[in-house]
């Protein structure tokens, strides 16, 4: 699948329904082209990204849209495992935190292209 715009994902995620059929259908199309795709225990993935959130707030000053919401969703989730997908979008990469079988999206972190971030 060709890269899509982050704004498409943002718009679908903004509807507030983590099991939005349009979002899940798009996810099914994007998953095979993910540059990173793995499953990890929710508590471990939460710990990693909660630490990253703290670093971005208090040390580096960097801010990535969706990071706080993704961390909060992982904290509130009852899933045992979370699947992480890194997909390339037109404006930069997105990290998607999803249910193992792609039936729910917990959160999306939107990263700009490296040249935009510098």
Structure overview:
The chain has one domain (6-112). The longest helix has 19 residues, at 42-60. With 118 residues, it is an alpha+beta fold. The chain is built from five helices and four strands.
How many individual β-strands? 4
Number of domains: 1
Global Rg = 13 Å
Largest sheet: 4 strands, antiparallel
Oligomer: single chain
What structural class is derived from the secondary structure elements?
alpha+beta
Strand order of the largest sheet: 1-2-3-4
Helix content: 40-55%
Task: Determine the strand fraction and express it as a percent band.
Answer: 15-25%
SS summary, helix count: 5
User: What are the secondary-structure elements, in order, as H or E?
Assistant: HHEHHEEEH
Shape: globular
Distance between the first and last residues' Cα: 28 Å
Mean pLDDT, nearest integer?
A: 89
Identify low-pLDDT runs.
Answer: none
Characteristics:
118 residues; alpha+beta; 5 helices; 43% helix
Short description:
Helices cover 43% and strands 22% of the residues.
Secondary structure layout:
Elements: H1 6-13, H2 21-30, E1 36-41, H3 42-60, H4 67-76, E2 81-88, E3 93-98, E4 105-110, H5 114-117
Antiparallel strand pairs: 1-2, 2-3, 3-4
């Amino acid at each position: 699948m060709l890269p899509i715009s982050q704004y498409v994902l943002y718009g679908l995620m903004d509807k507030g329904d983590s099991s939005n059929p349009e979002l899940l259908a798009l996810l099914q199309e994007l998953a095979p082209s993910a540059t990173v795709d793995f499953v990890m225990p929710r508590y471990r993935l939460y710990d990693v990204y909660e630490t990253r959130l703290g670093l971005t707030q208090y040390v580096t000053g960097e801010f990535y849209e969706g990071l706080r919401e993704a961390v909060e969703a992982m904290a509130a989730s009852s899933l045992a495992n979370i699947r992480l997908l890194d997909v390339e979008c037109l404006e930069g990469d997105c990290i998607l935190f999803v249910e193992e079988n792609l039936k729910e999206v917990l959160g999306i972190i939107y990263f700009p292209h490296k040249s935009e971030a510098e």
